[in-house]
Amino acid sequence: MKNYRINKNNNTNPGGHNEVHNQDCRYYNQLTNYEYLGQHPNCYSAVSEAKRRGYERADGCAICSGPCNNG
Ligand SMILES: [Zn+2]
């Protein structure tokens, strides 16, 4: 299980996504405007939790959550 955070800023990437990062990502501790998503076994679970909370544009970070990254 890893801790996940979602970036509440969605203007940092071309797709306008809210990117989801896990604790191992170099961006995790750099997020200044984020919501904690809790602990998840994988990025799929974390992204679906984010969507459940209303982040329709949630997407996995290309670096730490590659399998969940859609651009
Ligand atoms: Zn990341």
Could you explain how this protein is built, in words?
It is a single chain. The chain has about 70 residues and is an alpha+beta fold. The chain has one domain (about 1-70). About 15% of the residues lie in helices and about 30% in strands. The chain has 1 helix and 4 strands. The protein has one helix spanning about 45-50, and strands spanning about 1-5, 20, 35-40, 60. It has a 4-stranded mixed beta sheet, covered by helices on one side. The model has no long low-confidence stretch (mean pLDDT about 95).
The end-to-end distance, rounded to whole angstroms, is 24 Å
Identify low-pLDDT runs.
Answer: none
Proportion in β-strands = 25-35%
Largest sheet: 4 strands, mixed
* Mean of pLDDT: 95
The backbone outline, from C-alpha atoms, is globular
Question: Could you estimate the helical fraction of the residues in percent?
Answer: 10-25%
The helix/strand series, from N terminus to C terminus, equals EEEHE
In DSSP terms (H or I, runs of 4 or more residues), the helix count works out at 1
C-alpha Rg (nearest Å):
10 Å
- Which secondary-structure class do the elements indicate? alpha+beta
Bound molecule kinds, no repeats: zinc ion
Please, how many domains? 1
What is the count of β-strands?
A: 4
- Within the largest sheet, what's the order of strands? 3-1-2-4
